[in-house]
Each structure stands twice: as C-alpha cells, then as structure tokens.
From TrEMBL:
Gene Ontology molecular-function annotations: ATP binding
Keyword field: ATP-binding, Nucleotide-binding, Transport
PROSITE patterns, per database record: ABC_TRANSPORTER_1, ABC_TRANSPORTER_2
One Pfam family this sequence matches: ABC_tran
Keyword Transport: yes
Coiled coil regions, renumbered to chain: none
Name assigned to this protein: ABC transporter ATP-binding protein
InterPro entries in UniProt: AAA+_ATPase, ABC_transporter-like_ATP-bd, ABC_transporter-like_CS, ABC_transporter_ATP-bind, P-loop_NTPase
C-alpha cells in the first residue's frame, strides 16, 4: 500500500471492543491518526477513554478488531520484528536483579542475531544523556522513581527506533522532577527526531513537547479534536511564560473540559 511520504505511524479507522460477545464495550471507535516521521504527537483525554489501548494497538501488543496500523510503511508485526518501535510503558518495568546498565543492555543481549546488521546506540552513552552516568552499576531498587523512569526511557532508545510510544512516562514523578524529565526528553528528541506518540494527563507537558495534541473523547473512545502547537522550536522552559503558551493552554483545557463533562453525563 502506498504510504504518504514521511509517514511514520498510520492509524486507519481502528476499532477495538473488549468483553464477551453480547456485552462488548467499544473502547476505540474508528480512530484514524497519522504521525509523520520526526513529529511529536501527544494524546490526552479522560481516564478510560482508550489512550493506552490505542498505544498498545499501535505497538502491536493487542490486535484491533477493525482497521489497520502501519509503521514506517510496514505492518506492526514487521516493524516490531525490525525493532522500529520503542515503547516506554507507564511503569518502568525494570528487572530488579539486574543493574541499570544490564537492564538497558538486555534488549541487545537477547536479540543478538536480529541486531547484527543494525545501528545500535551505546547503552552507556544513553544513560549518561539521561543523567544516569553515575548510576549504571546500581540496581533499580537503589534508584528514585524518577531515575527508574529515565532508565526505562534510555532502554527504549537503545535500538534507535524510528517510532517511540510513551504511556504517561512521567506520571509517577513530583512536579519539579517531572518538568526536569520533560525538558531532558525534549532536548534529546530535538536532536534525535522520532515519530512520537506520547500519552499524558498534563496540559503544559503536552504543549511543551508536541507538534500536535490529540484530544480524545470517551464512551466510545474516539478523537474529538486535534490541536496544532505552533510554538517555535527548539523550545526551552522560557516558552511556559509566553502568551502563546497560555493561549494554547486555554484552548487545550477547554477541549479537555468539554470531553470530561460529556464523559460524566
Ligand atoms: N484487556 C482489557 N480487557 C477489558 N477491558 C479493557 C482492557 N483494557 C482496557 N480495557 C477497558 O478499556 C477502557 C479504556 O482503557 P485504557 O486503558 O485504554 O484507558 P486510558 O485512556 O488509558 O485511561 P487512563 O487515563 O486511566 O490510563 C477502560 O474502560 C478499560 O477498563
Ligand atoms: Mg492509560
């Protein structure tokens, strides 16, 4: 199938229901979304509207009932086999008995053959980039929540995937740390542009990071609105204080409140 040039992720008309036949609940209803190569797209919406389900369908972790997903022009299965998809789950899921460095190197070790002809990122370098240069030989249990999150992000980048899927990676962090992590990710992404799908509940986070913000509605989960974030790049923390940022915050919050109100009727 012909894919628009530069298309990273193509989600076409994806529907997904859960539950036994007869009492099925539609969680995703005809969702279509394209994320261009190098584009950062955030997904925001009421709890239970299907954000994680959409991310999991895109990652190939669950199958859609209807519709298709292509990654860089190939099926999700092929893209996943080719290690084109990086995934940062909501909880870091590090192996407690392995050091931080071993955790980050693990995907390389278990897949030696498949990796023989691809460019891999140096695990130590990645850990340093994410501020864990001095923690490589520690075990996950010896790290703070924020450090564990950073290790999980470093691990997802180790294959240098073309597509990065992140499910609320900073949700467990306090506001201060969350902002630090957000800006570190932004810096890293600005020099390593991937197609990113980033699920978050934070409006400022979505604005600071994204090119576009997808606002989802619930019951059934669907795309309600897509908001362009045309703030100039590269962005720094100074952007928070600009009128443009505040205007966008108002727009996104209004869109979100409309969905929240609808979700509670
Ligand atoms: N494997 C499953 N089996 C049955 N129902 C499921 C399954 N996974 C998700 N659901 C249901 O689908 C709906 C959407 O779930 P999902 O996790 O995608 O929401 P979400 O938007 O990520 O919510 P949150 O913001 O709370 O993380 C919920 O009602 C959830 O209970
Ligand atoms: Mg979720």
């Amino acid at each position: 199938m012909a894919v628009a040039q530069g298309a990273g992720v193509e989600i076409r008309n994806v529907s997904k229901s859960f539950g036994p036949s007869g009492s099925q609940v539609t969680v995703l209803d005809g969702v279509s979304l394209t994320i261009g190569m190098g584009e950062f797209v955030s997904v925001i919406g009421p709890s239970g509207c299907g954000k994680s389900t959409l991310l999991k369908v895109t990652a190939g972790l669950i199958d859609a009932d209807l519709g298709t997903v292509t990654i860089d022009g190939e099926s999700v299965t092929a893209a996943s086999r080719d290690k084109k998809i990086g995934l940062v789950p909501q909880s870091p899921a590090l192996l407690p008995w392995r050091t931080v460095l071993d955790n980050v190197q693990l995907p390389l070790a278990v897949n030696k053959k498949a990796n023989s002809d691809r460019i891999l990122r140096d695990a130590k370098e990645l850990l340093s980039t994410f501020g864990l240069g001095n923690a490589m030989s520690k075990y996950p249990g010896q790290l703070s929540g924020g450090m564990q999150q950073r290790a999980a992000i470093a691990r997802a980048f180790v294959f240098d995937p073309a597509i990065m899927l992140m499910d609320e990676p900073f949700s467990a962090l306090d506001e201060m740390n969350r902002d630090l992590q957000r800006m570190a990710l932004l810096d890293f992404w600005q020099s390593n542009r991937k197609a990113v799908m980033f699920v978050t509940h934070s409006v400022p986070e979505a604005i600071m990071l994204s090119d576009r913000i997808v606002v989802m509605a619930a019951h059934p989960g669907r795309i309600a609105q897509i908001i362009d974030v045309d703030l100039p790049r590269p962005r720094t923390a100074d952007a928070y204080a600009t009128d443009e940022f505040r205007d966008l915050e108002a727009v996104v919050r209004t869109a979100l409140h409309t969905q929240m109100e609808d979700a509670h009727v």
